[in-house]
Structure formats: structure tokens, C-alpha cells
């Protein structure tokens, strides 16, 4: 496979992140156009608009960035890496649209704008989320994404496994339960191990899959695939502890959404379990664990190393 | 590919339907077990239970039946045909769980039992639907379903295209809009062409895909694939007109759900557009169109021919 990635060691992480975010935005804009794909009958304008509201105009696009950077290690062409990254991002956006619903986390704003069910309505938001999820698999399975059907099927499987009942959706289920939404109505005090499992499912599984998918695109040998999954798992965990810390320390303006919500809801976080200082130490440990997993790679993995530190140290 | 389908001309449609339904039930029971697949972290029991509530214990399993019978034309082994059929059924069940939600059709019962959000709660029902949808793609992409990655990717794509914004989800969006859920709050009077498009998306696309997926499993040549899609499209339309007619003529006990709902909601149906007699003539015409599409097949397609008549003449 030919590489369209010149490697500039002085390309800063911020520049690379911004470039990928711009390319992903443009790709999503095209995927969420009124144009029909073969086999589609009509795209209802209200549904397209709600999907665009949920997927365009914001976010760090960290997940597609991880896919692109992981794929880069194996010389994967940029168009393919970006398509697969866009599929991962569509899946991430679906999860935000559904998590924001009144029956779930009941959030009115996201990235400083009204959430989809606020800008439209609940029924439309449910369908927009469903359609973003479905489109993610459509994009992965389409021959444009990779010439090999074996690879495309592997991409679909990795994404589905990370997103489903044993991954992200299951993690959201555990989160609702921990908040006391069922049964007694009392929030549960989860132990550290339970919190880690919840977070590994709710956020970690998709972050890990973002890295894994880049490696699958590039036909990574088993040992490198395993190393990259270990990297992704540690990065995902670091990212989530950082999120718990930001909820305590950041302002709503920095995050574009309400803060101090976790504590108010009695939410299970590692800040609650380990204390603020303990959580920060754990965040840094996980970030170093992610970097250590890349020991078998050379300078070509420096951006991924920087991404692990960024995931831990981000301010929004 | 070896065939495990002995062809008995005297196998009645009802017997075949019942056999497939039993096999699908058993397969879904296994897929929705607490056992983790590789890559899954944990399966929260409440989520598994809600998914089982939404997917097990009922339904004619018409869609997997169409997949199995279409695959049979090409000698596809039963285990593969049933796996792909189970994926189609998971996707169908997801759509029922979400369509029943208060923000959508707001139904309390389904197949004579409480709907998932009634038996559990709205948040759990949303997640159960999401997870059934995701699992459908997981099953299609898994190597157990077909040895060829090319075929598995094609299965995923056919399913996603039928289910997404340009298919089933888009059709539900049009349906909510026609009921006057947005804007003026008035139900729209849709013309016959608009009703046909809505129904082709909401119900037709997945029924057609059920047939198409069987043909893809069997590596059908292009001409036969086209014929089977034409069959599936006509059958899907006949099925939906029959549904409109049943809503007027059947009792709630026959259907296991409320009837005369369409009229109460000012819902766009072909009964409203063509009158009851006109709708019955249209149903029969579509059923014959489906049969005619199979002209290139011999006696091996007799069960599909009978299925087209069944879809039109069913009493529940």
C-alpha cells in the first residue's frame, strides 16, 4: 500500500490534530449530504439535519486522529485511514446523541450548543443516533474504505464489539445503574475495580478500537496489533480519569457543557474513589503505560506518544 | 458449498416457517447469553435481559425465513443462512424496541406483552435497541457467518443501507412527520406516491434486504440477485398493505397489539388512500408481482412464492 504520509518530526501534535479534525469534518459533511447512496430510497431532510447537528461542527476528533496515526505506522493511504476514522467518529457521535437524551444523562447542551433532542425533539434525536450508528457500519463495509473485504469485515467487527452490549452501550447501562436509576433509586458506591470496568466499557473500548482499526487497516502483524491495543487501552483509561478530573477542576466555559455534574449525581468516578491527587497520579501512570506500550516502535510513533500525554493533560 | 436442505415439495409453508422460527429463536437465545465474545469486557445482566425481552419469544420471524429460503436457492448451508437471518432479525427487533418508545409510537404492548420500556424503563430500552442494532452487524461481520470476508462485508453493507437514514430509520422519520409530530402539529394528508415511498423505506427496505442477503450468501449471479430483489420489494409492499388492512379488520387479540390505531392517529396508509377494497386489490396485485419476479426459478422457489401469498393474506 502506498503511503501519502510524509513524516515531519516537527509536525506538532496540535497541528496534526487540527489537520485531521478538518479532514474529518469535510468527510462527515459529504457523508451527511442529501445525496443518496446506492440502495437508499430517500434521505428525509429533517433526519439529515439532525444527524448533521449531532456530528458536525465540533469535537477534538480524537478517535479518528488515533485511527489515522495508528494507520500511518503501516503506511496506509490517508483517504482510507480518514474514511475508517470518520466511521469511528460517526459511532462516537451517535453515543453522544443518545447519552444526552432525557431518559439517559438528560443534557441540554453539548459543545456549547443545544443537544439534538433540544434543537429538534426526542423522537428525531433517537432516530438520528440510530442512523449515525448504522452509517458508521455502512462506511466501514463500503469497498471505498479498503480494497479487501476481509479487512472491511474485521473493521466492522472491531467497531461492533467495542460499541455493543459488552462495550460502550454496556458501560452506559452500568453508569445509569450506578446513578441509582433503577431499583432503590439510590446511587451505588462502586469500588475502584467496578469504576475501572465501567470506564473501560463506556469510554475505553471505543478509544482502544480507534487505535486497533488503524492497525487492522495496515495489516499489522499480531505482536504490533497487541502492542497498539495495549496502548489504546491505557490511553482510554487515562482519558477517562482526565475527564473525571476536569469535571471537578474545569469551568463550564472550558468544556462547553455543565461541570461538577458527576459529584452532584453521586456518579462513580476515580476522583471519588482515589481523591483528586490520587486520580492525577493514576492519570499520569496510565499515560506513561500507554507510552511504554509503544516501546517496539521508533520515532514514527512519536505522535501517538504525544497523543497519550495529550489525552491525560488536556484542559477541555 | 454443501447443501443441508433436502427439498420436499410437500413441506408446507407453515411447517417451514415454524421450523425456521424455532431455529432462529434458539440462535438468538445463544447470541443473547451472558457469555462474552472476544473483545467484550462484561455483559450487564439488566441490558442482556432487556435485549432478550425485545428479541425472544415471539414473532413470525418472516425476515430470517426469507433469508433462509433465498439462500436455499443457491445451496447455502443452513447454519450460515440461519446466522445471517438471525442478524436480520436482531435488526428488526431493534427497530420495534425503538419504535415503541414514548417519543416515537408510544406503544405499551407488543406481541401481547409489555414493550421493553414498559417492562424496564426508557433509558434501558434505548440502550437495548442500540445494542441489538450493533449486535446485528457483529453477527454479520463474524467469520462464523461466512468464510469469505468479501461476502461478509457485502452482507453488512446491504443490512446497513436498508436500515439507515435512506431506509428504515428514514421511513420512521417520515412516518412521525406525517402524523404531525413536528411543526404545525397537524397530520399531513400524504398522496399515494408519498405513502408508497414511506412504506418502501419503513418496512420494504428490510424485507427486500432479507431476500437480498440470502442471495449474497449464495453468491447469486447478478440477474438472479436482481430478480430476487424485485421479488423482495414487491413482497415488502404487499406485506405493508396487508398490515394497513389488518389494522382496520383484525381484532387486538389477533395481533397482540392495539388496532385501529392508524385511523385514530390520522396515519398515512394505503387503505386511506385507496379505500379498503382498493387496498385489497393492490395487495393482491403486489403479491402476484412478487411471484412473477421468480419466473426464472423452478420448483425450488415454490416456498418463496407461497411466502409472497402468505405475506399478503396473513391474519396476524
TrEMBL record, chains A, B:
Keywords: Isoprene biosynthesis, Magnesium, Metal-binding, Transferase. GO terms for cellular component: cytoplasm. Its cofactor is Mg(2+). It holds the Pfam family polyprenyl_synt. GO terms for biological process: terpenoid biosynthetic process. Signal peptide: none annotated. This is Probable farnesyl diphosphate synthase. One of its GO terms (molecular function) is metal ion binding.
Amino acid at each position: 500500500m502506498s503511503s501519502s504520509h510524509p513524516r515531519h518530526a516537527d509536525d506538532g501534535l496540535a497541528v496534526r490534530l487540527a489537520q485531521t479534525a478538518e479532514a474529518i469534518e469535510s468527510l462527515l459533511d459529504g457523508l451527511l449530504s442529501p445525496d443518496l447512496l446506492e440502495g437508499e430510497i430517500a434521505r428525509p431532510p429533517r433526519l439529515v439535519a439532525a444527524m448533521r447537528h449531532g456530528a458536525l461542527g465540533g469535537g477534538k476528533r480524537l478517535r479518528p486522529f488515533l485511527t489515522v496515526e495508528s494507520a500511518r505506522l503501516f503506511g496506509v493511504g490517508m483517504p482510507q485511514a480518514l474514511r475508517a476514522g470518520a466511521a469511528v467518529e460517526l459511532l462516537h457521535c451517535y453515543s453522544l446523541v443518545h447519552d444526552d437524551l432525557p431518559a439517559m444523562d438528560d443534557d441540554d447542551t453539548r459543545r456549547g450548543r443545544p443537544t439534538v433532542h433540544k434543537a429538534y425533539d426526542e423522537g428525531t434525536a433517537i432516530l438520528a443516533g440510530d442512523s449515525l450508528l448504522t452509517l458508521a457500519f455502512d462506511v466501514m463495509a463500503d469497498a471505498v474504505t479498503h480494497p479487501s473485504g476481509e479487512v472491511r469485515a474485521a473493521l466492522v467487527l472491531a467497531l461492533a464489539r467495542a460499541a455493543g452490549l459488552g462495550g460502550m452501550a454496556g458501560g452506559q447501562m452500568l453508569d445509569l445503574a450506578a446513578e441509582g436509576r433503577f431499583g432503590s433509586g439510590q446511587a451505588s458506591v462502586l469500588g475502584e475495580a467496578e469504576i475501572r470496568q465501567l470506564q473501560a466499557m463506556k469510554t475505553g473500548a471505543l478509544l482502544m478500537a480507534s487505535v486497533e482499526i488503524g492497525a487492522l487497516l495496515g495489516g499489522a502483524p499480531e505482536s504490533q496489533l497487541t502492542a497498539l491495543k495495549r496502548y489504546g487501552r491505557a490511553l482510554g483509561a487515562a482519558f477517562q480519569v482526565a475527564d473525571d478530573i476536569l469535571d471537578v477542576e474545569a469551568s463550564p466555559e472550558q468544556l462547553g457543557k455543565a461541570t461538577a455534574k458527576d459529584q452532584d449525581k453521586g456518579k462513580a468516578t476515580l476522583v471519588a474513589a482515589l481523591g483528586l491527587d490520587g486520580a492525577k497520579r493514576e492519570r499520569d501512570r496510565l499515560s506513561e503505560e500507554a507510552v511504554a506500550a509503544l516501546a517496539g516502535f521508533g520515532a514514527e510513533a512519536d505522535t501517538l506518544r504525544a497523543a497519550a500525554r495529550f489525552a491525560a493533560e488536556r484542559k477541555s
